[in-house]
Amino acid sequence: MSKPAPLSLAQPQAPHGGRVTAWAAIWSLAFLLAATLYLLRSNTGWLSAWPDDWIVPFASWMSALMAWMKTNLSWLTRAIAAILDLPLQIAFGLLAKPLKLWGIPLPTLSWLGVISAAIIAGHAAGGLRLAALMAACFGYIALFGQWQGAMLTLALILISVPLCVLTGLLLGVAAWRFPKLERLAVTPALDLMQTIPTFAYLIPMLILFGNSPVSAMIATSIFATPPMVRATIVALSRIPSEIADFAVMAGCTPRQKLWRVLIPTARPLLMVGVNQVIMLALNMVIISSMIGAGGLGYDVLLALRALKIGQGMEAGFAIVVLAIALDRLSQAFAYRGGRPVHHEGVGLVARHPHLVLALAVLAATTLASLVLPALAKIPPGWTLSTAPWWKAGVDWITVHFFDVIEALRIGLLVYVLNPIRAFCEAIPWFAALVLLVLAGYRLAGWRLALLVGLLVLFCASSGLWQKTMSTVYLCGVSAVLAMLIGMPIGVWASRSDRVFRIIEPVVDTLQTLPSFCFIIPIVMLFRVGDVTALIATVSFAIVPAIRYTNHGLRQVPPTLIEAAKTAGCTRWQTFRLVQWPMALPEIMLGINQTILLSLSMIIICAMIGTRDLGQEVFIALAKADAGRGIVAGLAIAFIGIIADRLIGGASAKARQRLG
């Protein structure tokens, strides 16, 4: 007689069996325990508030480690700084500020030559339309007086992006070849690099490399490399096995198979990674300006500090158009790169006409700038400014709608934000631990439960539990509001191509506009505080909710929709019973990204009066307290990792349920 199968709580098989009843009982007990601890939190001792005697001095340990590295590894950091500083200085000298070679000052490239070279590159990659776009983007930068800052930023991008792409490609290849390396080292490292706040990168960079462009470049590389690693792993994993087998049959060595067959085959997806590296590097320009990067980011930062909305928006839009230009140009060269062209027996000019023309124009205009100063530096009289218009617009809104704005601000604070903050800050750490560990086990088994439990314990044992819950409060409210607004817009865009064409450029602008630029006009209207942080965070985090909802609904197979209509379903029934369930896994990815973007705004919002983990990192940055900043940054990262893993587990179960 066979033994009965053991009861498994991880994967229930029947909708009305004993397993479901067992889980219902377990969840009921867990919520009862959490509610009891919350209501009796003043009498439950260590189960509600982590005792001060139990706090683990992570910050002191981190500070000691950074001090040891600064003392004993200064030779290494100086060598790295010297190696990286050389190409940076060359790029700065060519684009932004004069470079001395053997004591002889060399002229920078003429602004007219750079614009012409960008137009020629656009024509080479994408024809007249792309050339016109490049002319418009670089013309905007010149016309509105943002040229010097933009060239400093472009120089940093031109050196950082190849470094990120090469590093990401090599790490991705290694992770693809050795799955254990990916699972045990690469994936956890990427998770931390993408979720730990960017401000937390700055403190170790300041201590080890000083206040210099090299520090900014390294911080940018840490932030921008993960998409390239992930794109490489995914691209190589998706190559059909027949292609790899063909390379072996053709006599290729493993190295030849990788670099001559697999990498070229994976080019389209790899270029997606390159594109994301460029976008993330440009996203870092403001933050990295705090440690010596300069450029457009520094201009936006100065405008924010002085509350000069016009100057800040002009510099912010300069970053946007620079991002658009580099994005479209990189994509065009990626598609063009897949069509090999052979020029046998012809000269250099015939093989590379656009390159030769661009170099000739750069040389001619730069030499002419030695005689004509207007070609070396754009005369102030040739530029325009919209700064007075921005200020006048904000002043007009403030004068005419002050009562409405103030009523909205006070109403949100008194009736929504303050009660939610008070509730979240009062949640006992043990109650949160029980519920999150149980959710992790329910969704993905004991490994996720263990990971979630350890991360929650870190936040509690570091003495940052209340600030952690303050962060959860602001991030949670912002993410929920972004989803409530963004998902209906995504549904609307998925049903109408005309609406999608209107929404797409708005979403693109929101995605590329620096996060600081969301704050400047909102501060002018709503002053500092949680309401300003909420509005800025929602504006920044709404993009994934729109994009993923639209994309998920558009990916539903038309045959399923036709089948639903044939079965007599109304339009609402087709959406509710077919389209929404099929798009749900994609939509959940959008929810995940919305939460992560909300977390990324936490530290920036600390500059306008919020009191949470972002404030901890910001204070640590001001005091150069590495330990305090890193621990607070890790706590923010762990919130993101918990949300990512739980939503990922729920998405996987949804995909499994839908087959």
UniProtKB/TrEMBL annotation:
<feature type="transmembrane region" description="Helical">
    <location>
        <begin position="423"/>
        <end position="441"/>
    </location>
</feature>
<keyword id="KW-0472">Membrane</keyword>
<keyword id="KW-0812">Transmembrane</keyword>
<feature type="transmembrane region" description="Helical">
    <location>
        <begin position="20"/>
        <end position="40"/>
    </location>
</feature>
<protein>
    <submittedName>
        <fullName>ABC transporter permease subunit</fullName>
    </submittedName>
</protein>
<feature type="domain" description="ABC transmembrane type-1">
    <location>
        <begin position="468"/>
        <end position="647"/>
    </location>
</feature>
<keyword id="KW-0813">Transport</keyword>
<keyword id="KW-1133">Transmembrane helix</keyword>
<feature type="transmembrane region" description="Helical">
    <location>
        <begin position="396"/>
        <end position="416"/>
    </location>
</feature>
<feature type="transmembrane region" description="Helical">
    <location>
        <begin position="513"/>
        <end position="546"/>
    </location>
</feature>
<feature type="transmembrane region" description="Helical">
    <location>
        <begin position="447"/>
        <end position="465"/>
    </location>
</feature>
<keyword id="KW-1003">Cell membrane</keyword>
<feature type="transmembrane region" description="Helical">
    <location>
        <begin position="355"/>
        <end position="376"/>
    </location>
</feature>
<comment type="similarity">
    <text>Belongs to the binding-protein-dependent transport system permease family.</text>
</comment>
<dbReference type="Pfam" id="PF00528">
    <property type="entry name" value="BPD_transp_1"/>
</dbReference>
<feature type="transmembrane region" description="Helical">
    <location>
        <begin position="629"/>
        <end position="647"/>
    </location>
</feature>
<feature type="transmembrane region" description="Helical">
    <location>
        <begin position="277"/>
        <end position="296"/>
    </location>
</feature>
<feature type="transmembrane region" description="Helical">
    <location>
        <begin position="587"/>
        <end position="609"/>
    </location>
</feature>
<feature type="transmembrane region" description="Helical">
    <location>
        <begin position="152"/>
        <end position="178"/>
    </location>
</feature>
<feature type="domain" description="ABC transmembrane type-1">
    <location>
        <begin position="150"/>
        <end position="330"/>
    </location>
</feature>
<dbReference type="InterPro" id="IPR000515">
    <property type="entry name" value="MetI-like"/>
</dbReference>
<feature type="transmembrane region" description="Helical">
    <location>
        <begin position="75"/>
        <end position="95"/>
    </location>
</feature>
<dbReference type="InterPro" id="IPR035906">
    <property type="entry name" value="MetI-like_sf"/>
</dbReference>
<feature type="transmembrane region" description="Helical">
    <location>
        <begin position="198"/>
        <end position="224"/>
    </location>
</feature>
<feature type="transmembrane region" description="Helical">
    <location>
        <begin position="472"/>
        <end position="493"/>
    </location>
</feature>
